[in-house]
Amino acid sequence: MSAVDTTPERSPELEQVHAALVSGERPARPGAVAQCLTFGWRGMLKIKHVPEQLIDVTITPVLFLLMFTYLFGGAVAGSTGDYLQFLLPGMLVQSVLFVSVYSGVALNTDKTKGVVDRFRSLPIWRPAPLVGAVIGDSVRYVVASVIVVVLGFIMGFDADGGAPGVLAAIGLVTLFAFGLSWAFTTIGLLMRAPSAVMNTGFMLLFPLVFLSNIFVAPDTLPGWLEAFVDVNPISHLTTSARGLMGGDAEADSIVISLLTAAALTAVFAPLTVRLYRKA
Amino acid sequence: MSTAPAIEAEGLAKSFGETRAVDGVDLHVAQGAVYGVLGPNGAGKTTTIRMLATLLAPDGGRASVLGHDIVAEADTVRSLVSLTGQLASVDEELTGRENLVLMARLLGHSRAGAKARATELLEAFGLIEAAAKQVKHYSGGMRRRLDIAASIVATPRLMFLDEPTTGLDPRSRNQVWDIVRALVGQGTTVLLCTQYLEEADQLADRIAVIDHGRVIAEGTPAQLKASVGRGALHVRLLEPGDRPRSADLLGDDVQLLPDPAALSLPCASADQASEAIAALVTAGVRVAGFSLGQPSLDEVFLALTGHPAEAGAEQEEVAA
């Protein structure tokens, strides 16, 4: 181009900028799947660069597992070994659901830092950043699951359901977390700061986790509380995980868990996409 | 290349609740130059840019970018433009290189092609040594350069730059200005939003002055200055402490400039200017230098809006 020659006094650095601009032809636009995978890769990089985020949320269930098993296990279930059998699947649930809050935190960080603006100004399939984030999330769910389950085995957990049962439990909990993470991404786009998303997320999640059958059998609770615990979807998910890992799964709690995940996705995924378009 | 104007906007409007952030903006921007949009904070510059870059749907009016409607053909518009927003919108947790590879992959580069393009840009923007560092450890200037590099992974036909030098030190600012000039030299049209009059004066071929969501003046920097009608005498004092006294001596029209030792006075003629200098010297004020020239854009802004650009910015911040 003739424009390059008009300013001969240009510095070497600027010459490079010019060269970089000249060679900036636009390649053919990639498909939606390739775009989603690229955003998934971004999710992996974040795990690599900010492992603390994963550790933070995994350390709590690990501490709970150790503390509850050895401190209260004998009192609650008669022996620490028996309590571990009861508690471990619930710790898997708690651990993975805590991780799902970070989907909202990450999206809010993107929004407040202007990264969402950059992605939205690109000629890409619009939900690609959201779908791609799910890929990164799934890796975090699996890592959190593995940490809890391996610790359980070290402590002496006995999975009568065998490897298929354990894998099925991890799969079901991960699916549920996908559903729930859409609720947190919706919150992530509504809130002003990442810390607010974190606080709101845990404020919603904590009561649901504690008022479930994760820690104690519901029949020891007062009637009104038992009634709540029985309808809490997290109880159904925990019952399913226990059943799958223990080799005596009941179909109805699994179906209820899957339906809950589907309902959460049906409501919050479109809401997230809608808010993202306007973010 | 099509000959459609880079931007053609008619009556573009956007409200947020009760606030009419953009209240009927008309713009005509030809291809291949820097077009400055000048105004204080809250004047509606960013909202206008966000609409033109298809991030925000307008409530009223219409606009096209390089001949494509920003609403009906939003996707085509996105493949022609780049946006560098007020925030350096790069992922702080990733490294500089990873940010650029991410953009290159999203635009369709192969894995190897993306790496090569990232390296080329990192070298061109003086970031190659920091390539493997997370962006959160970058300085403001480095972050801004990476941000611009991310915007030109594929060279855009039109680039929106929203206050690209806000918060930068003078050296980084000059680097950004050089990059903007390089962009234009390469045939990219740049829409530059700024609240710095000097920046618009330095870079822009034409300027639209925006205040309260409307274009209140449009033209080349020289035309805008001429529209004020008078030249100005700029005086620099040896002692900043002499400025209040000098201002009193020179009368009501005197304007204090950001430089604490400088002031300016509207002057119709060279005679009037030499009288003013003589008055200062007679009073014992030591003058370091003076010049008689066209009015600065600061003065233009004051004349057009009735309030100085800086004061407008402050009011806006208080209101927010």
Descriptive overview:
The complex is a heterodimer of chains A (279) and B (320). Chain A is an all-alpha fold and 279 residues long. Chain A is built from 11 helices and no strands. Chain A has helices spanning 12-22, 32-49, 51-77, 80-112, 115-120, 128-155, 162-190, 194-210, 223-231, 233-246, 251-278. Chain B is of the alpha/beta class and 320 residues long. Chain B folds into 2 domains: 7-224, Rossmann fold (3-Layer(aba) Sandwich), CATH 3.40.50; 230-294, Alpha-Beta Plaits (2-Layer Sandwich). Chain B contains 12 helices and 14 strands. Chain B has a 6-stranded mixed beta sheet with strand order 6-7-8-3-9-10, sandwiched between helices. In chain B, strand 7, helix 6 (170-185) and strand 8 form a beta-alpha-beta unit. Chain B is globular.
Task: Describe the structure using short key phrases.
heterodimer; A: 279 residues; mainly alpha; 11 helices; 79% helix; 0% strand; disordered N terminus; B: 320 residues; Rossmann fold; Alpha-Beta Plaits; 2 domains; 6-stranded mixed beta sheet; 4-stranded antiparallel beta sheet; 12 helices; 14 strands; 26% strand; disordered C terminus
Outline of the structure:
The complex is a heterodimer of chains A (279) and B (320). Chain A is mainly alpha-helical and 279 residues long. Chain A has helices at 12-22, 32-49, 51-77, 80-112, 115-120, 128-155, 162-190, 194-210, 223-231, 233-246, 251-278.
What is the tally of beta strands of chain B?
14
Net shape of chain B: globular
Number of domains of chain B: 2
Number of domains of chain A: 1
Report the principal-axis shape of chain A. Answer: elongated
- How far the N terminus sits from the C terminus of chain B, by CA atoms, comes to 43 Å
Residue windows where pLDDT falls under 50 for at least 5 positions of chain A = 1-8
CATH fold descriptor of the largest domain in chain B: Rossmann fold
In DSSP terms, counting alpha (H) and pi (I) runs of 4 or more, how many helices of chain A?
11
* Terminal residue distance of chain A: 39 Å
> What class, by secondary structure content of chain A?
mainly alpha
Strand content of chain A: under 5%
